Amino acid sequence: MSQPSPCPAKIEINEVAPRDGLQIEARFVPTEEKIRWIDALSTTGLRRIEATSFTSPKAIPNLRDAADVVTGIQRREGVDITVLVPNVKGTERALACQVDEINLVMSASDSHGLANLRMTPEQSLEQFAAILDASKESGVFINASLSTTFGCPFEGDVHEARVLERVEKLIDLGIQGVTLCDTTGMANPAQVKHLCEAVLERWPETPFTLHFHNTRGMGLANALAAWQAGISRFDSSLGGLGGCPFAPGATGNVCTEDLVHMFEAMGVDTGVDLDALLEVAATLPDLIGHDVPGQVVKAGKSTRRYAIPSVHA
Amino acid sequence: MSQPSPCPAKIEINEVAPRDGLQIEARFVPTEEKIRWIDALSTTGLRRIEATSFTSPKAIPNLRDAADVVTGIQRREGVDITVLVPNVKGTERALACQVDEINLVMSASDSHGLANLRMTPEQSLEQFAAILDASKESGVFINASLSTTFGCPFEGDVHEARVLERVEKLIDLGIQGVTLCDTTGMANPAQVKHLCEAVLERWPETPFTLHFHNTRGMGLANALAAWQAGISRFDSSLGGLGGCPFAPGATGNVCTEDLVHMFEAMGVDTGVDLDALLEVAATLPDLIGHDVPGQVVKAGKSTRRYAIPSVHA
């Protein structure tokens, strides 16, 4: 691996559980519970919360209450509310709710784009142009998430040159921030480091966010590699909620509290109050009705102390 | 973090599940099943297998068949059989079984040593001197594992200076290899990198092995950090078996197949045939009677392909 790394002293977390986590849950979380949960999250020091998705209620029934959620939550200074939108109609609905940021999604690989969005990357870019047009006067930050950046569950390898070409098109179009997504947990740390160095060198002014899944246990190792390359923005999901409908058996997103725990232990400032975050994480099994993959909430922080057992126990 | 890293092109795995994994299981795995399992493991390209422990049957009833296991397994060229021994008596029993290597254990922290071994570190060192004496003529490689190197569940931080002092005593005594153990998953990647760089700089001729637990999800991130510092030897446990009786809720050792999967994906040669290893890992739930934490065996390798779903599904 190459020259000395910048290793940012501070990182920013975008909490995606309310959108990426809830969308594939079996149970609809009632609107009031979602609002209470997001309000609790927004007091923990997270920089940004992806609160919901303004898609058609038929496509993602769990998020059919998008507008009620965004208008119901308490807005706090320093916590940006971002939402996913698929098209101009969703953009208009989102803007009517005064969101701070809009997140668009396209796939780096054609077959994933067709399966997930029913669009080729070219069609996604056309859609994005229309969305940029529709949001221009709002001044809202427009981010785009590039799925299957590190590999496609249908096609396999997605070459770095292809990813860079997609990123270039996004930036040329006027997209302000780009999220590189390891949608089904195929990335490895060497690959992550290489791609992150490449995008940071080529587009030093663009805020890049990294989005990992812990499908094969490499979530935190990949986040470490991205950070070593100079990345300071991460998507993550409380409790490790989430997954991908096209990769059965796949576990969820990298877990927010485990990510915060690792970076804080390393002396990196995440801005998050880990104890407060762990309290919210501990309420998750009740909220969604099942156990979640997050580990720190079960094991306790690495600073946890145990009583010395009796020698004759 | 400091200067460019050596990042070894090859690493070696020491499979510890038959010892560190089985010792805390509720069920005794019958000797014949242990032998079949270790024989299967020894065909996968693992460099070393910690097959059992020659402790008193009362202390670790699950490993009461130590001599039968070691004399029953097939020995293969290139696969060293190592065993844990606590004292001279255990050493003599192990040597009688023609082991290739002996592993000793002491704690970096006093209270963990007293709780786990009923010995202070000083008493452990006296024991080790007697063991070195007893094994001198055998020519068998003597390794020592230093528990709680990255933190103690009772005392908290274990300062690096104290760890370096313990390592120095071990090496001065004649110990040939040292394993730095994160016994209850308290290590973080920055700490790991710092300590690994320190020991490799100070004792470049000593083989150092790193032993991580995945208690707080950082197992692979810590292994990555150690490798970046120049470490090429790792302990790991099939399926992520293992744990620590003094840290309830703690998950097991870093998972061998997940570790091999990560490093192979990065282009690092582990010597292991991952497909063969995954086949053995898939038999684990039957062998021990419960599910295990390993993720790649569930999700498949990152090269796994899925069929493109029907667009109208």
Automatic annotation (TrEMBL), chains A, B:
This is Hydroxymethylglutaryl-CoA lyase. Keywords: Lyase, Metal-binding. The lineage of its organism: Bacteria, Pseudomonadati, Pseudomonadota, Gammaproteobacteria, Oceanospirillales. The keyword GTP-binding does not apply. InterPro entries: Aldolase_TIM, HMGL, PYR_CT. NCBIfam families: PRK05692.1 (NF004283). Residues 11-278 form the Pyruvate carboxyltransferase domain. It holds the Pfam family HMGL-like. GO terms for biological process: ketone body biosynthetic process; L-leucine catabolic process. Belongs to the HMG-CoA lyase family. Transmembrane segments: none annotated. PANTHER family: HYDROXYMETHYLGLUTARYL-COA LYASE.
